[in-house]
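Much of what follows relies on a compact textual record of a protein's fold. The record below shows the convention in full:
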Amino acid sequence: MDQRLTQPAPPAKRTRNSSKTKADILVAGRAEFAERGFEGARVDAIAERAGANKRLLYHYFGNKEDLYRAVLLDAYQEIRRGERALSLDQFGPVDAMDRLVRFTFRHFLANPWFPRLLGTENIENARFLKTLPDIQALHSPLVGQITTILQRGAEAGIFRRDVDAVQLYISIAALGFFYVSNMATLSVIFARDLGGVAMLQEREAQAVQMVLDYLRTQPS
């Protein structure tokens, strides 16, 4: 009998899934930078969180600063992808704005690391954000989309005509950002569990109502 037919096949080589490794490192970086800030974050800890070899981390992302930039860009890209997926152009002005406010609030709520990461970058005076070449282009479609919703609302006689899209989005983001980032302290100060389901639902509804009442020519 041919011995080659009876010998076990050699174990298959493990292939490196570079996309998964990169994604795991980004997620680990999110957590480390959000918890410890840029200065306190350690590359060793990020590699350990990701279950990756530190040499791979340097291979894919370069140094700590480059990894932080990648984490920051990925965070903004994620929320922009979610906003595009809303397909707001398919809805009337009121429904479109309702959906945008709810999405923004829920994104902060579901990703508490995001407000903390932005807090870190503000402590750094946005010095890393300023070096990201694509950041302006990333936000331009959102501003354009909001502008279109406002125009459609104004043409329908529903929304006022003097609203600045950038100022409006800052207000929408603030309604969710402040609540989520200060939930622990506000819960103690007011002796109310702001993370409870009823409080979260009330807050989201109030955020929607505040934005729509501001936009309407005749508040409901």
User: Anything to note?
Assistant: The first helix runs from residue 3 to 6. The radius of gyration is 23 Å. Confidence is low (pLDDT under 50) at residues 10-15. Residues 23 and 189 are 38 Å apart (CA to CA).
